Automatic annotation (TrEMBL):
<dbReference type="InterPro" id="IPR036291">
    <property type="entry name" value="NAD(P)-bd_dom_sf"/>
</dbReference>
<feature type="binding site">
    <location>
        <position position="155"/>
    </location>
    <ligand>
        <name>NAD(+)</name>
    </ligand>
</feature>
<dbReference type="GO" id="GO:0000271">
    <property type="term" value="P:polysaccharide biosynthetic process"/>
</dbReference>
<feature type="binding site">
    <location>
        <position position="207"/>
    </location>
    <ligand>
        <name>substrate</name>
    </ligand>
</feature>
<feature type="binding site">
    <location>
        <position position="35"/>
    </location>
    <ligand>
        <name>NAD(+)</name>
    </ligand>
</feature>
<dbReference type="Pfam" id="PF00984">
    <property type="entry name" value="UDPG_MGDP_dh"/>
</dbReference>
<dbReference type="InterPro" id="IPR001732">
    <property type="entry name" value="UDP-Glc/GDP-Man_DH_N"/>
</dbReference>
<keyword id="KW-0520">NAD</keyword>
<feature type="domain" description="UDP-glucose/GDP-mannose dehydrogenase C-terminal">
    <location>
        <begin position="317"/>
        <end position="418"/>
    </location>
</feature>
<feature type="binding site">
    <location>
        <position position="266"/>
    </location>
    <ligand>
        <name>NAD(+)</name>
    </ligand>
</feature>
<feature type="binding site">
    <location>
        <position position="260"/>
    </location>
    <ligand>
        <name>substrate</name>
    </ligand>
</feature>
<dbReference type="GO" id="GO:0006065">
    <property type="term" value="P:UDP-glucuronate biosynthetic process"/>
</dbReference>
<feature type="binding site">
    <location>
        <position position="324"/>
    </location>
    <ligand>
        <name>substrate</name>
    </ligand>
</feature>
<dbReference type="GO" id="GO:0051287">
    <property type="term" value="F:NAD binding"/>
</dbReference>
<dbReference type="InterPro" id="IPR014026">
    <property type="entry name" value="UDP-Glc/GDP-Man_DH_dimer"/>
</dbReference>
<keyword id="KW-0560">Oxidoreductase</keyword>
<protein>
    <recommendedName>
        <fullName>UDP-glucose 6-dehydrogenase</fullName>
        <ecNumber>1.1.1.22</ecNumber>
    </recommendedName>
</protein>
Length: 438
């Protein structure tokens, strides 16, 4: 199949590369010239494990191309995927569809022959109908079917998620489009990686329903964690005891500083707005949006407690800035809120993240950025683990203790056992693990 992908970000690039790995002929298009230049020079503009090798392999095989020019590849394509951003609209929290609309207009102008236009971007229910209207206005003769194919990949595990997905959801009522999409995903083993065909509106809503449910699980275990701290229980054991029940499942039950990232915050908010607009408010999700927002900032109070009540003038070392490990993405990372709250309280901050510092520097210029965990510990009154990068799981406590002004560790990801850290003479705070009544 000839495939054009519009938007070469976290989703567009991974999708394009993986579709070329399936054997399709893929052109990835982006307006950001610097991104395309880097890709054409063999560089990868994002950090995603395994991506660089896969790009090199498919470029060498002549199946994968990068360009800023949309017209030619779209005219030649059997399938055009739109994978541009759909951030929260600043004014009201709805999904901002301006990038999707403008990409659709550009596509509509140059369509040639029957083409399937697929929204891979996360878009509110009914967006596909609107895209059809746009195409009808721009190019009434276009022979096109608009399909919804939301993406469920996770940054950090994106290649495995795309190549071996739990499921692929395709929303369309058009038989020709369904046949084309079946061919696009033909290389997947249909038993283990089913392609679920639904109506377009159903597919659009499925993505939001899934993300909001995962956010709900996280918000729930976080509130249970707070209760654990109060009543002397251990949230990790509660989570294990709950999660081993196959009806519940163990994933997304790790208590922490609140969910972040480029999807959950904006998608929960967009679902709330959509439901309100249809006069069917989803109170559960409205509630967790608020809970999560206050939680992130509240984590700064844990740090205050750990250093004796006041962080003013104290040096706090931050380990991890990205919203999760194995990505360079800091969008809506809990670190942003925690750092801001600590700055507001008068703390001095020094930080390290294995992949996220380049973007973090632009968003948080007040931080003193360091090269590793040890230089962050140097002179610090406390260390705070915000992201559970693998290298933070093997900290050299004796060395850190020597370097720090005071041996205090706030572990917002519960990656250490309290006893282990205490054995090294550290004051230790974590999330939802109280041994008060042990
Ligand atoms: N990041 C994730 O983990 C993830 C997972 C599932 C779904 N999604 C959804 O996928 C969509 C894309 O997310 P992302 O994280 O990849 O975004 P991103 O910001 O990383 O990438 C979007 C890209 O689109 C480009 N772009 C915008 N308008 C364009 C146009 N008219 N023509 C060409 N290029 C254009 C931008 O320059 C940018 O490179 C969003 O709707 C998001 O909700 C993201």
């Amino acid at each position: 199949m000839q495939i054009a992908i519009i938007g070469t970000g976290y989703v567009g690039l991974v999708s394009g590369v993986c579709l070329s790995e399936f054997g399709h002929d893929v052109v990835c298009i982006d307006k950001a010239t610097s991104k395309i230049d880097r890709l054409n020079n063999g560089e990868v503009p994002i950090y995603e494990p395994g991506l660089e090798e896969m790009i090199a392999r498919n470029v060498a095989a002549g199946r994968l191309h990068f360009t800023t020019e949309l017209a030619g590849p779209v005219a030649d394509a059997d399938v055009v995927f739109i994978a541009v951003g759909t951030p929260s609209r600043k004014s009201d929290g709805h999904a901002d569809l301006s990038y999707v609309y403008s990409a659709t207009r550009e596509v509509a102008e140059v369509l040639r022959g029957f083409t399937v236009l697929v929204t891979k971007s996360t878009v509110p229910v009914g967006t596909g109908d609107h895209l059809e209207r746009i195409i009808g206005e721009v190019n009434p003769d276009a022979d096109v079917a608009v399909v919804s194919n939301p993406e469920f990949l996770r940054e950090g595990a994106a290649i495995a998620d795309f190549m071996a997905p739990d499921r692929v959801v395709v929303g369309s009522n058009d038989d020709r489009a369904k046949a084309v999409m079946a061919e696009v995903y033909g290389p997947l083993d249909s038993e283990r990686h089913p392609v679920v065909f639904t109506s377009r509106r159903t597919a659009e809503l499925t993505k939001y329903a899934a993300n909001a449910f995962l956010a709900l699980k996280l918000a729930y275990i976080n509130e249970i964690a707070d209760l654990c701290e109060e009543v002397g229980a251990n949230v990790q054991d509660v989570s294990l005891g709950m999660g081993l029940d196959s009806r519940i499942g163990r994933k997304f039950l790790n208590a922490g500083p609140g969910y972040g990232g480029s999807c959950f915050p904006k998608d929960t908010l967009a679902l709330v707005k959509t439901a309100q607009d249809h006069n069917k408010p989803i109170r559960l999700i409205e509630t967790i949006v608020g809970i999560n927002e206050t939680r992130k900032r509240a984590m700064a109070r844990k740090v205050e407690r750990a250093v004796g009540g006041d962080v003013r003038g104290k040096t706090i070392g931050i380990l991890g800035l990205t919203f999760k490990p194995d990505t360079d993405d800091v969008r809506e990372s809990p670190a942003l809120s925690i750092v801001q709250a600590l700055l507001d309280k008068g703390a001095l901050l020094q930080a390290y993240d294995p992949e996220g510092m380049e973007t973090a520097r632009e968003l948080m210029p007040e931080i003193d950025y360091r090269d590793d965990a040890e230089s962050v510990a140097h002179g610090a009154d406390a260390l705070v683990i915000i992201t559970e990068w693998e290298e933070f799981r093997v900290l050299d406590f004796p060395k850190l203790k020597d370097l720090m002004n005071a041996p205090v560790l706030v572990d917002l990801r519960n990656i250490y056992s309290p006893a282990h850290v205490a054995d090294h003479g550290f004051v230790y705070e974590s999330v939802g693990r109280s041994d008060r009544y042990r």
